[in-house]
Amino acid sequence: MAPTDIDKLLAEAPGFGSCGACPYLQGGTPELCLRCARRTVEPLAPVDRRCSVCDQTYQAGRTVCKNPVCGMAERWFEWNHAVAIRSGVLEDAVKRFKYEGRRGWAAIFGRILVGFLDSEGRLFDDIDLIVASPAYTGSDAHRPWDYAREILVAASREQRPPSDWPFDLVTPPAIIKTAETEPMARIKTYKERRAHAETAIRCALLVPDPGRIRDKAVLVVDDTFTDGLTLREVARALQLPGGARVVRGVSLARQPYGRG
Question: Which of 140, 177, 192, 222 has the maximal Cβ count within 10 Å?
């Protein structure tokens, strides 16, 4: 679609956050939805003012990230890139989708994800498999649906030629979660979060078929990146028993430090 055509469509779009009233709710494209969202969401800091590992904005006068995970010798993932900062309408949409069961947002998030992958292709062009950061969906799960996987499945439906991203659509997925764990959002200190990640979360992750990911470059999709401790455990599982060559992450939102 030519830029002028997109501009005409954007003029009629009500803006991200008002997607239910958009004339292109059913027929929008990844490029249209990404560009529409970028008019509204809070952008990341310029490249030279944010961490190349976790997209965290540097503190004033600094060029080193304060996120402890970024300096770990055994980080397991190479980097995580986000579409935007978790604030405003993006934060509200993620909350409605993840905590209020407004699952229709999966289609919009899927388009935005594909649009982001397409627009930043140089970062992702060597990826062999795109997986969802797993959620536990057993009979005793507090949320019996896998929100990240719904975004991934929606993205696979929303992509259009020449997009051909290798989304993991096999059942069971390449990596699964076998037990419920305390949500990281409820654990406030970094020390406690790290301990929880390295015990409960680590024990709950399983790669059902290591042959599917052996020697592959794997991209992990999630809704929000905070400090990377969950992604670190997912990447560890994908590499240690799984044998993945490299693991990277992509998220809709980057939760900045100091905002809860």
Answer: 222
CA-CA distance, 108 to 44, in Å (whole number)? 20
CB atoms within 10 A of CB 9: 18
- Please name the amino acid found at residue 185: A
- Selection from 42, 47, 46, 23 nearest residue 33 by Cα: 23
The span from the CA of 200 to the CA of 202, in Å, is: 6
Are the C-beta atoms of 19 and 34 separated by less than 8 Å?
no
CA-to-CA separations, 157 to 33, 79, 111, 237, in angstroms, rounded: 14, 26, 9, 27
pLDDT digits (tens, 9 = 90+) for 159-190: 999 999 999 999 999 999 999 999 998 998 99
Q: Structure pTM?
A: 0.95
Largest distance between two CA atoms of the chain: 52
Alpha-carbon distance of 26 to 53, in angstroms, equals: 35
Location of structure tokens 């990281």: 184
Question: Can you give the residue ranges of every domain in the chain?
Answer: 3-254
**What is the chain's Cα-based Rg?**
18
Determine how many CB atoms are found less than 10 A away from the CB of residue 26: 7
Distance between CA 37 and CA 47 in Å, rounded? 19
Q: How far apart are CA 171 and CA 174, in angstroms?
A: 8
